[in-house]
Amino acid sequence: MLQTWQWGELKSRYGWSIIPKTWQNGQGVIVAAALILKKPLSFRNLNTGYSIFYIPRGPLLNWSDRQLVRMVLDDLEALTREHRAVFLKLDPELVVGRGVPGSDNATEEQTGTQIREALQARGWVFSRDQIQFRNTVWLDLDRPLDDILASFKQKTRYNIRLAERKDVQVRRGSVEDYEPLYKMYAETSIRDGFAIRSLQYYTDVWKSFSRAGMLDILIAEYEEKPIAALYLFHHQENSWYLYGMSKQDERERMPNYLLQWEAIKLAKQHSCTRYDLWGAPDVFVPGDSMWGVYRFKEGFNGEVVRTLGAWDFVPNKMLYKLYTHAIPTLLNYLRARGRKQLSRELAS
Predict the structure, then answer these.
(1) How far apart are CA 168 and CA 89, in angstroms?
(2) What's the confidence (pLDDT) of residue 152?
(3) 20 has which bridge partners?
(4) Which class for 234: exposed (0-12), middle (13-18), buried (19 or more C-beta within 10 A)?
(5) Average pLDDT for residues 165-175, to the nearest whole number?
(6) How far apart (Å, rounded) are the C-alpha atoms in residues 86 and 125?
């Protein structure tokens, strides 16, 4: 989804420009592609002449084709230097392992391991700034709904039925719901301690993908009042649970379990064969910030998938160090200040 034209157009409204790039074989068939996002670096509104490159969830190619991988990386590195980018970040959906590390069903993927070694050999560095979740949970939808439901853990099935018994209703959302759902999302962010963007940004996301027929909003209600919601993105055979939100009230009615079940059914209606629950812990221990969310997702009995994560190509080590060490300190301060401001706005 983050390599679609819709995502690129969205980001172009928020300071990024788009560089679409493809690679062809000898017969003129496209064998690799990348939606490259470029952002100029400025200081006090003055253009520094430098930029940063980011390929979210890309590039797209057959990573087991080592000759193709070398060609793509060669070209990307050359393009990074040509545009005076401080660094190029990529975080492809390249699986390096499956299952929780240390568990009986944990396995490693040879191609992912080889690409990680190849990047290290070329001088790429594992990024301090992991924009997307490195690990996630995939649910196989290529089977009957009854089989999917039966595969859930007993407590999850119970909570889905409980939500139905407690009169939770799920309906489709529309543009009229954007603003009240953003308020709910803001409340969720403050309660759970994560940063969010402005109402305008999420409105642009939701409108762009709705117009493209790639987004459905599901809202759980009790007595006709929204108590939880999720945004289901879908493209080709894949679907994603990208944004979720809930009220503190009525949580005992278990609306999030019913929402997920309705999202799964809807994803199958869109002919999707995979449902990505979008995010799992970096380290599978109770102290990880994603642990509570993971325990909820674990009940749907999907497969834990570990991907390559974000790696940076760094042609300018001095500027890279400045960007990755000094600037994050400032951003953390600004995010903390922003959360306080959001809390004050919600209170008023």
Answers:
(1) 43
(2) 98
(3) 35
(4) buried
(5) 96
(6) 13
Q: Among 299, 339, 34, 313, which residue's Cα sits nearest to residue 197?
A: 339
- pTM score, whole prediction: 0.90
Please report, for residues 117, 118, 324, 335, 348, the alpha-carbon distance to residue 142 in angstroms, rounded to integers and kept in the order given: 33, 34, 42, 41, 47
Rounded Cα gap, residues 57 and 40, in angstroms: 21
The tokens describing 197, both together, are 């963007």
The answer to whether the CB of 122 falls within 8 A of the CB of 66 is no
Q: What is the reported pLDDT for 29?
A: 97
Residue indicated by tokens 């064969």: 273
- Strands 30-43 vs 46-55: parallel, antiparallel or unpaired: antiparallel
Is residue 62 pLDDT above 90, yes or no? yes
Confidence at residue 94, expressed as pLDDT on a 0 to 100 scale: 97
Query: How big is the CA angle at 5 (ends 61 and 280), to the nearest 5 degrees?
Result: 65
Q: Bin 15: left if φ > 0, else alpha if -120 < ψ < 50, else beta.
A: left
Highest mean pLDDT pick, 66-70, 246-250, 284-288: 66-70
CA 190 to each of CA 175, 194, 245, 272, 347: distance values in angstroms, whole numbers, following the listed order:
24, 7, 11, 33, 12
Q: The tokens of 142 are what?
A: 């290529």
- For residue 114 the two structure tokens come to 């080889």
Instruction: Please write the tens of the pLDDT for every residue from 104-125.
Output: 999 999 999 999 999 999 999 9
Q: Please tell me the distance from the alpha carbon of residue 334 to that of residue 332, in angstroms, as a whole number.
A: 5
Contact 263, 241 (CB under 8 A): yes
Residue 128 tokens read as: 């301090």
Say whether pLDDT at 330 is over 80.
no
Backbone Cα Rg of the chain: 21
Identify the residue with better confidence: 299 or 321. Answer: 299
Amino acid at 256: N
